[in-house]
Amino acid sequence: MKSLEELMAIKNKMQNKVSVRTSAGDIRVVVGMATCGIAAGARPVLNAFVEGVDALGLGDKVQVTQTGCIGICQYEPVVEVYEKDKEKVTYVKMTADKAKEVLEKHIKGGKPVIEYTIGATQL
Amino acid sequence: MDELALYVLDITMNSVRAGATEITITIEETDDTILLVISDNGCGMTEAQLSKLSDPFFTTRTTRKVGLGIPFLKMLAEMTGGYVKVESVHESVSEEHGTTTTALFYKNHVDFIPVGNMTDTLVTLINGSPEINFTFIHKMPEGEVNFSSEEIRSILGKDISLAEPEVLAWIRGNIEDQYNEVDN
């Protein structure tokens, strides 16, 4: 069983980090989580990003958040990536596997995965 | 949606959007029924809003013209022989405002779907709204799973967000462990 002692250890570790951290979340990953997103499979996409950020140790740099319906329900699950001084990248029809690829290539590697973006999708 | 946990996520998002600071999700399972209760202290609904709740063409959002959350839940519950009941007190009526959604499902009915991954649903909710106090109780004939944001926060202190990836990973592990213990 995950113990409260482990949680205490995380707390102690985080407290040191929080004071060092300059700007929490240079990159913001936003997942659409309204009925349309949820029904299309947004929950596994969100969880793939949350777990991947932890696994790749990107917690200091990347913030994974949620939004409601942005009006393009037919393209859900939709993921938007906001990075300082860069244009927003909108990924559509995402899956957990695509999320892992975006994490590796775009979030960590800095190169957007063009084929999953809204611009590359047949309208 | 092919698991009950996704409906729970969807309906709880209504509480989040209603500005709730306290949200309690309880699931009580017997051998043949599941009683789901989601209650919040959000802004509540007016009687006019409440009366239009099962109308798919009623929604308060502005990005699209249909609202399917409650209609979906109602359809699932009624297909199994159960029901959905929504009680709400709007903030203009009383300081004790909020909404309680109750749904009963007959889980052995052919149209019922698996309960699914409640852990993923909870982690998703906490990631999206780390500042909300979520209380989760899932009672099964074989045992019980509990989660309380307040309890975690009392250990972490107010400076560390529950949405920190490491904290979320711990919460996920803790809830999964509890479910595994019930299964054994």
Descriptive overview:
The complex is a heterodimer of chains A (123) and B (184). Chain A is of the alpha+beta class. Chain A has one domain: Glutaredoxin, CATH 3.40.30. Helices cover 41% and strands 16% of the residues of chain A. Chain A is built from four helices and four strands. Chain A has a four-stranded mixed sheet. In chain A, a hairpin with a 5-residue loop joins strand 3 (79-83) and strand 4. In chain A, helix 3 (42-55) packs across helix 4. The longest helix of chain A is centred in the N-terminal third of the chain and has 17 residues, at 4-20. The model of chain A has no long low-confidence stretch (mean pLDDT 90). By secondary structure, chain B is α+β, with helices and mostly antiparallel strands. Chain B has one domain (4-183): Heat Shock Protein 90 (2-Layer Sandwich), CATH 3.30.565.10. Chain B is 37% helix and 25% strand. Chain B contains six helices and six strands. Chain B has helices spanning 4-17, 47-51, 69-79, 118-128, 149-156, 165-183, and strands at 22-29, 33-40, 83-89, 98-106, 133-140, 143-148. In chain B, helix 1 (4-17) runs antiparallel to helix 3 and helix 1 (4-17) runs parallel beside helix 4 (118-128). The model of chain B has no long low-confidence stretch (mean pLDDT 93). The interface between A and B is large, with 35 and 39 residues.
CATH class of chain A: Alpha Beta
Shape of chain A: globular
Please give the domain count of chain B: 1
This entry's quaternary arrangement is: heterodimer
Q: Based on the structure given, which CATH architecture of chain A is correct?
A: 3-Layer(aba) Sandwich
Query: What is the helix/strand order of chain B?
Result: HEEHHEEHEEHH
How would you sum up the major sheet of chain A? 4 strands, mixed
Mean pLDDT of chain B: 93
List the total number of helices of chain A: 4
Q: How far do the termini of chain B sit from each other?
A: 28 Å
Number of domains of chain A: 1
Unreliable sequence segments of chain A: none
In order across it, which strands form the biggest sheet of chain B? 3-4-2-1-5-6
Taking the alpha carbons of the first and last residues of chain A, their distance comes to 48 Å
Any idea what the CATH superfamily of chain B is called? Histidine kinase-like ATPase, C-terminal domain
Largest interface: A-B, 35 and 39 residues
